[in-house]
Amino acid sequence: MRPAELTPSQARAEFRAGLRTPTAGCSAGWTQANLLVLPRAQAYDFLLFAQRNPRSCPVLDVTEPGETAASIFDGDLRTDLPAYRVYRDGALVEELGDITGLWRDDLVSFLIGCSFTFEAALLEAGVPVRHLEQGRNVPMYRTNRECRPAGKLSGPLVVSMRPIPAEQVATAVRVTSRYPAVHGAPVHVGSPGELGVRDLDAPDFGEAVEVRPGEVPVFWACGVTPQAAVMRSAPPLAIGHAPGHMAITDARDSDHLVP
Amino acid sequence: MRPAELTPSQARAEFRAGLRTPTAGCSAGWTQANLLVLPRAQAYDFLLFAQRNPRSCPVLDVTEPGETAASIFDGDLRTDLPAYRVYRDGALVEELGDITGLWRDDLVSFLIGCSFTFEAALLEAGVPVRHLEQGRNVPMYRTNRECRPAGKLSGPLVVSMRPIPAEQVATAVRVTSRYPAVHGAPVHVGSPGELGVRDLDAPDFGEAVEVRPGEVPVFWACGVTPQAAVMRSAPPLAIGHAPGHMAITDARDSDHLVP
Question: CB within 10 Å: which end of chain A, N or C, has fewer?
């Protein structure tokens, strides 16, 4: 079966059995999410940070401490993602295919929206998505804008960039603004310098993509923002998905569409 | 000056000076908000409850512990509302015009969206708002639907009801769905019995209004929901605004409009 045709539970079973692969293109129409696992002692600051920075940290679901499933994820959050990254005191210490051995009763899991959802909508609207065309990861940049801090959490806004033909910028804004739960409308159109982005060819995360004549760089708030903030605040333990190896949820992409 | 023409800071100065009056019609175009003040120890459960029940608990702003202003409220949250209600262990113990004497460094203030914002939009769209016509408080009902609990917090969904002429129900849905930060689209149209509401003339909160022939009762998630949950969970201290005596914020109603 092609990955796009797997149901979320079928895809999760494959990952649970050991398959370790990026999830782009998996389970078409089903929402993929960023995972962040934190001890309960750090959970309030993160939830408040997300409330204050909803564009970059759209929270889709939060577990009770110790719970290993979520209302939109009827699987096991410890085993059913293809790969995890473990951070201690803000530093990446290992990448694992299973975090059962690290599990504790005080761990809270956050599922955070990711822009895969609106990229499908952009394509449907005839707007090109360059990094998909080029088979690359989306380019992401640290900006000169600070997020609103919350408790001990602070960090810069991180943005993703997609080059959009000038005559389709309005369409791209219109389409993505209907998905506020997965970053929504762009935070900036054109003028990378104003965001403190000096060189589009040197992204801080992901890979550079081609910007063609007549195209405008359009910037969206990015799901790497919460990770950047969590890393700066250096909690004793934090676990995230490995980049590109997302949680495949039981929510439909269409659930996030506003009228 | 008429109350509608007061700027938010002028209105807050009047309340700070002792004016004790409901805020309906004050500072037209500026967002009014429900206030809930809780000790930091209870704040995570409430913030999570709100995240899980966004229709009834749309959080507009949250302070750091001890802060007396908020990003959308450039005043003093202890003095600048017309009246406050103080609850201890879930029981209402007093109503005050000023809570400075109760203030502590661990208190967190939540500002929560209220439906005044979308009522103005309904009127502009030509949809009648009966309780405004009749000069009454909106009728509110406890339903048989439980909110998603969070930690120690649980409670029933509370709804407000507005009778809408059948030919304008679609307009009312369309208009209010553009305001997700202030309860958004209805949760139920018609059929009060299915929500466990036996008698529209006997609301649990507020006042009954006339339902005319050809009108359909339309139900929206209500800002009383968080108070009902907080009261059931009986925190040692909680402070709210007195019903109808809202926080007048520096946010514009139009800030909450989605495309």
Answer: N
Between A43, A178, A258, which is nearest B44 by CB? A43
Q: Do A48 and B48 touch (CB under 8 A)?
A: no
- B72 pLDDT higher than 90: yes
Alpha-carbon distance of A55 to A137, in angstroms, equals 20
Q: Flag whether the ipTM exceeds 0.90.
A: no
Chain B residues in contact with A259 (beta carbon < 8 A): 174, 177-178, 185
Residue B14, token pair as written in the block: 């009047």
Q: Which numeric CATH code is attached to B116-225?
A: 3.30.2040.10
Q: Is A178 left (phi over 0), alpha (psi -120 to 50) or beta?
A: alpha
Task: Indicate the pLDDT class of residue B228, thresholds 50, 70 and 90.
Answer: confident
Cβ of B48 and A59 within 8 Å? Answer: no
Residues in contact with A69: Cβ distance below 8 Å, sequence separation at least 6, in sequence order: A63, A75, A76, A77
What DSSP string describes B108-160? EEEEEE-THHHHHHHHHTT---HHHHTT-PPPEEEEEEEPPPBTTB--EEEEE
Across the A:B interface, residue pairs with CB atoms under 8 Å apart total 39
The CATH number fitting domain B3-114+234-254, selected from 3.40.1640.10, 3.30.750.24, 3.30.70.660, 3.40.50.2300: 3.40.1640.10
Residues of A in contact with B258 (CB under 8 A): 177, 180, 258
Residues of chain A positioned with their CB less than 8 A from the CB of B71: 148
**Rounded Cα gap, residues A1 and A22, in angstroms:** 17
